[in-house]
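Example for reference:
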Amino acid sequence: MPAHTNAPALPATDSHQVLCLLYPGVMSLDVTGPMQVFATANDERARHGLPPYYRLVFAAQAAGPVATTAGLRLHADCGWRDVPLHPATTVLVPGGDGADAAAADRALRDWLCNAATQVQRLGSVCSGALVLAHAGLLDGVHATTHWLRMAQLRQCSPASQIDSDCLHTYNPAHPVQSRRFTSAGVTAGIDLALALVEADLGRPLALAVARHLVMFMRRPGGQAQFSPLLTPETQHAPRLTQLLEWIPSQIAQDLKVEQLAAQACLPPRTLARVFQRELGTTPARYVERVRLEAATALLSQRQASVATVARLCGFGHPETLRRSFQRHLAISPQAFAERFGAG
C-alpha cells in the first residue's frame, strides 16, 4: 500500500506523539474524551508560554472519514501503516461496537504487535482491550474493560489478570503496567488520560486540566467502575431484589449474613449461593460496597467528620472505614473529602 503524503512526521524530541486508532463502529467518546485531555494539556501549557507537548494523530486503515457508533464521522489523518513509530509515542485503542471486527483484522493485530516493541506506551479504552487481547498483547498483564465485555475479555485472554472492579490499570511505577494498560468503559478513558498527563507533565498540570474540563480531579485507577446502588435488579431471585432495596436504608445496623438471610427468608448458605450467582460477590462484600458508596456521598458533601461518617455508614471505627477506602479506592477518607468534597 503506498504511503500517504500526509503521514505525520516525527515529533520534536521534547514532545510526545499520541496515536489514537480509528475503525468503523468506534465509540466517539472513547476517542474524543481522552484526546481532549491531551489537547487541553497543550492549552494549559500555552497559557504559561510553553510549547505544546502532545502531538495528536488519528489513524485508521486509510486516511479519511470513519463512521462512529453515534453516526458522526471522525477524520483519520493517515493510515496506521504510515505513522512513524518511535519511543516517544503512546498508542491508544478505543472501544466500540466495531471492536470485534477490528480484533479480527490480522494486519491490524500484526501492526500493533510491531508497535508494542517500538513505542513507550500501548493502551486501550473500554472494549479496545479486546483488540489488544486478540493480538496477544495482554498476556500476563493486569487488564480491565467495560463491565459488559468482562466475560468476553476473560475468554479471549485467559493469560491476563482480569480486574472487573477498577477504572484503569495504568501504573507509572510498575515496569509492565506503565507500558501496557487498559481502562474501563467510556469516561474511564478520561481518567486514564489524566493519569498519563500527570506522569508526563506533573500533578499541577493534570489538576489544571481536570479543572478546565470541570472535573474535581482524576479518579484513582483502583476505583470501582460503577456503584452497587445502580445494580440491584436480579433476573431469577425476587427475594434478593427486595433485599438489595432494603440494605441501603439499614447500613448503620449490624448486617451480618444471618441478618440478611432472615430478611430474605432464606438460609444463610442459600443466600450466599444466590449472591454469588446473581452478583458475582458475597453478601459481606456487597454490604461493604453499599456502605462505601454512602460514605463517599457524605464525605463529598463535607458536612460530617470521618468518625461520624464511619458510624453512620456502619463501619463503626474510622480505621475500618480507612481500610475499606484504601482497598477499593486507593485513597484515604480524608484525602477523598479534600479532593472531591464540595466547597
Remarks:
- The CA atoms of residues 168 and 192 lie 6 Å apart.
